[in-house]
Amino acid sequence: MGGLDDPKLVRARLVESRIKEPSSLVRKAKQRGWRPDQALWCAEDLIGARVVCNNIEDVYRFQELLEEKLHTEVTVQDYISEPGDAGYRALHLNFRLSSFGRQVGCEVQIRSLLQDAWARLSHDDIYKGDDLPADLRERMKDLSDVLFSTDQIASRVRKRVAQVRIPDGGKSVESRLSRFYADVFGKSPPDYVVRESSDVASQFNEDQWKKLSSLLRDSSFKRRINEIYRKAFGLRANISERFTTCVRAIAYTEEAALSHLQSIVDTEVREIDLFQRREILSEMPDSIADFINQIARDPESIIPFAEILSATVYCSACGEVLVDPDVLEENLVEYYELEEAPGVSTAIRGSGLLTPDWDYPHLCVYHANQFRKD
User: Fold this and answer.
1) Is 332 exposed, middle or buried (0-12, 13-18, 19+ CB in 10 A)?
2) Would you list the DSSP string of 327-355?
3) If we measure between CA atoms, which residue out of 47, 56, 61 comes closest to residue 116?
4) Domain definitions of the chain by residue range
5) CB 145: neighbour CB atoms within 10 A?
6) Which residues have a Cβ under 8 Å from the Cβ of 335 and sit 6 or more positions away?
């Protein structure tokens, strides 16, 4: 989201991504009359992803941001303004990306939290049911309508939060903050940024207001703020975070403001890590036997599991991920609540995955041998 001024105003998470299963692709090819060699390139949804946003405003803003980043033609199916007969609501974005010199069809479904809840509920209770009566299907549509009304209320709240504060020339703390923001950044601030900063700036004297004007333009302090974000996310801080950090620096000290910002970023990183951990663990094979089968079938696919289970290191010479067979086996015993997990270590060593050297555990076997020769 590098092009997003304030990511707080677009709350979104990737909840699912997939490559179309071969059986599903074959079925679709038969329905569309494609030859087997055409199916991969003709399917408009070979690659699929589902994104869930907090509310409808976030859904449409996420669509805009994604289209800005893609730089390719995007076809939009808006099932929010025109829901399906059963009440399904979402945005579907279809586009093509280049892969191995061919264009691959991709589909991204974007839903609000409530739309996603309805879709999951209806999938379990309706689409998996046989011969459901018409009145029950109507109740599901009623539920969709009720949730849509709730979504609209949430959207009105979102609009109020995102409302900009137009500088009005007044002498209040809010008015002065709005003018400073507009003068430095060339745009009016979101209302919540002004409200968030007004409590901190409420006791400013004239000398502090002058210092704020100077600090907002201070390239050195800006670099220090950006460095905190760059280390954590690889991105610069958004202008609203810069503004609130500068206000806090004037009220307290620069070091205290940067420490406060660091704690916010650390919390965000922990939340991202926890979410990533939950998402990866949700895909873990159901049993140790399934895990071993997956190693044999697709060795690379178990690397994320090994990372989550603290069974990987990086080769200090080449930077490649190394899967430690013994640590992985030990941690899988704990994960699956077993007394032992025989076969995992052997399967890893025979899979072709890079593993640490016995004598030099922070080197891959190749570079460990090179080190021995040297």
Assistant:
1) buried
2) HHHHHHHHHTT-S--TTHHHHHHTTT---
3) 56
4) 7-162, 195-274, 284-373
5) 14
6) 284, 309
Angle at 132 between CA 130 and CA 138, to 5 degrees: 145
* Closest by Cα among 364, 345, 358 to 306: 345
Q: pLDDT of 11-60, one tens digit each?
A: 777 777 788 877 788 888 888 888 877 778 888 888 889 999 888 888 98
Give dist(CA 347, CA 334) in Å, integer.
Answer: 18
- Report the CATH fold assignment for 7-162: Beta Polymerase; domain 2 (3.30.460)
Residue scoring higher pLDDT (246 or 124): 246
Average pLDDT in the 356-361 region? 90
Highest mean pLDDT among 62-76, 112-126, 210-224, 341-355: 210-224
Q: Is 76 helix (H, G, I), strand (E, B) or coil?
A: strand
Cα–Cα dist 269/254, whole Å: 22
Q: Which of 91, 96, 94 is nearest to 58 (CA)?
A: 91
What is residue 238's DSSP assignment? P
60 contacts: CB under 8 Å, gap ≥ 6: 91
Residue 58 pLDDT: 86
What is the sign, positive or negative, of the torsion defined by CA atoms of 211, 213, 217, 222? positive
* Mean predicted confidence (pLDDT) in 247-267: 95
In angstroms, the Cα distances linking 82 to 38, 66, 148 are 32, 21, 12
Tokens of 146: 């009720």
Interval 169-207: pLDDT, tens = 778 999 999 999 999 999 888 888 898 899 999 999 999
Q: Which residues pair with 313 in a beta bridge?
A: 322
Residue corresponding to tokens 């072709």: 352
Q: What share of the chain is helix, strand, coil (3-state, %, to 5)?
A: 60, 15, 30
pLDDT of residue 10: 64
